[in-house]
Automatic annotation (TrEMBL):
Belongs to the acetyltransferase family. RimJ subfamily. Pfam families: Acetyltransf_3. The lineage of its organism: Bacteria, Bacillati, Actinomycetota, Actinomycetes, Micrococcales. It is an enzyme of class 2 (transferase). The keyword Methyltransferase does not apply. Coiled coil: none annotated. One of its GO terms (molecular function) is protein-N-terminal-alanine acetyltransferase activity. Residues 10-179 form the N-acetyltransferase domain. This is GNAT family N-acetyltransferase. GO terms for cellular component: cytoplasm. Its EC number is 2.3.1.-. InterPro entries: Acyl_CoA_acyltransferase, GNAT_dom, N-acetyltransferase. Keywords: Acyltransferase, Transferase.
Length: 179
């Protein structure tokens, strides 16, 4: 399986169904950390079975070039998720980017380096023209990751996503990959 180096110990790669146990464990250990940034989750979400089914469905979209579910691995341990999703081909050639890093590894620049590598991948291998991302208004760390990687703030969307049980405003960003 092709790995995209992020640093000497860390790499991105497309997830496999047999990563489901690690994904479930990563979500379990980061449940409190991610609570303020993600939608409310049912208990089932944190199970290996749910994660295996989710990865299976996402890989079906991946085979059509419409979704790219990456795991961030330190050695063989999953320490984050990076998703290029909602890919629209044709004249648009656009996608959405979402990501998180394990609470034990935040503040080390891993998200910034991983996003930089994914932008290269999106440009060359995935042949995308544009990537969009959104952050909660108070998520300054994620905003820095995007801005440091050439994303431009393009607006604010009121009540954009239901995060942590309530509709919340989000800042919207985009990166144009081909001028």
């Amino acid at each position: 399986m092709r790995r995209i180096p992020v640093d000497s110990q860390t790499a991105l790669r497309i997830l496999k169904v047999n990563d489901a146990a690690q994904i479930a464990q990563a979500y379990q250990r980061n449940q409190e950390h991610l609570l303020q940034w993600e939608p409310e989750r049912d208990r089932e979400f944190y199970t290996e079975a749910w994660q295996a089914e989710n990865i299976s469905q996402t890989l079906a979209a991946n085979h059509k070039g419409l979704a790219f579910p990456y795991g961030l691995f330190r050695g063989e341990i999953l320490i984050g998720r990076f998703n290029i999703s909602s890919v629209v081909r044709g004249a648009f050639q656009s996608a959405s980017l979402g990501y998180w890093v394990d609470h034990q590894y935040t503040g080390q620049g891993l998200a910034s380096r991983a996003v930089a590598e994914l932008l290269k991948e999106a440009t060359s291998a995935l042949k995308l023209h544009r990537i969009e991302a959104s952050t909660l208004l108070h998520n300054q760390a994620s905003a820095r990751v995007l801005l440091n990687n050439g994303f431009t703030h393009i607006g604010m969307a009121p009540n954009y996503l239901k995060i942590n049980g309530r509709w919340q405003d989000h800042n919207l960003y985009q990166a144009i990959l081909h001028e």
